[in-house]
Write a structure and sequence with these properties.
single chain; about 170 residues; alpha+beta; six-stranded mixed sheet
Length: about 170
């Protein structure tokens, strides 16, 4: 059985992602949001929804969290603050009358290289949060499954220092 390809423009997909993240962490009570957060921190991939496509097919949307470069203790309040900022930044970009900024991530060096992963993308919006004097930056990536009708929204902490300008580091 062959898998059909479907495409959605970046703005529409970012809108979908913002709505799913808002519904999953902001619109629900704090206890339920913290439970979801704990599951993500435990490296679980969570199913968010099944999206019905125009052709009648469906695609499952999952959520994961990469905290491998997070500095300091990861707690729900700091995560939620970063997520709120990320959602706001993405919503602003969607409303702007220009194309969204996106990046093509490199394949995991542990898996054999630094080649661009053409099927994945990272939105060029971030949610910074300072906790205990340490800044962490949360971004959103999208990775479609190669064999199944599954798209994973990847919340990922990235090293915020890679975005500093050289002048900012001069004392």
């Amino acid at each position: 059985m062959t898998q059909q390809q479907a495409s959605i423009d970046h703005k529409r997909f970012a809108t979908l992602a913002v709505n799913l993240l808002h519904r999953g962490f902001i619109d629900i009570n704090r206890t339920a949001a913290k439970r979801t957060f704990r599951e993500l921190v435990a490296s679980q991939r969570l199913m968010l929804t099944n999206l019905k496509l125009e052709d009648g097919g469906t695609v499952r949307i999952d959520l994961s969290l990469d905290q491998s470069v997070h500095r300091g203790k990861l707690n729900f309040s700091a995560f939620r603050d970063a997520l709120l900022t990320l959602i706001g930044q993405l919503a602003e970009q969607v409303k702007a009358d220009k194309a969204l900024t996106t990046f093509t991530p490199l394949n995991d060096p542990a898996k054999g290289g630094k080649q661009p992963n053409a099927n994945s993308l990272v939105f060029g919006a971030g949610g910074a949060a300072v906790s205990g004097g340490i800044t962490n930056l949360l971004m959103l990536g999208v990775e479609p499954s190669e064999g199944d009708a599954v798209i994973t929204l990847q919340l990922m902490y990235v090293d915020p220092e890679q975005f500093q300008s050289p002048e900012a580091s001069i004392s």
